[in-house]
Write a sequence for this structure.
């Protein structure tokens, strides 16, 4: 009989929020896709999503991006909520 470890409760991930990131214009080609979902600890910000994105997708290092949360222009310190949509595009 195979025994599997009992998953430990991770309080940060229990309150994780899931954010859909949509790449617009030329960023779709850089990302190699149109959308992706990221999970981050509760009280995540736009800046945290961008940092996570650059960490996981090195092709975004040094790329300036304009950010919209649910279609509204946002600043890096804006708090995100579960289910928010973050739209990224190159600045005009």
């Amino acid at each position: 009989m195979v025994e599997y470890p009992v998953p430990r409760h991770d309080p940060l991930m229990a309150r994780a929020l899931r954010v859909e990131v949509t790449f617009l214009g030329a960023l779709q080609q850089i990302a190699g896709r149109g959308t992706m979902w990221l999970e981050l600890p509760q009280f995540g910000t736009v800046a945290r999503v961008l940092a996570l994105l650059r960490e996981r997708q090195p092709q975004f290092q040094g790329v300036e991006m304009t950010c919209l949360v649910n279609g509204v222009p946002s600043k890096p310190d804006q708090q995100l909520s579960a289910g928010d949509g973050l739209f990224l595009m190159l600045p005009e």
The first helix runs from residue 11 to 14. The two ends are 61 Å apart (CA to CA). The chain has three helices and five strands. The longest strand covers residues 17-23.
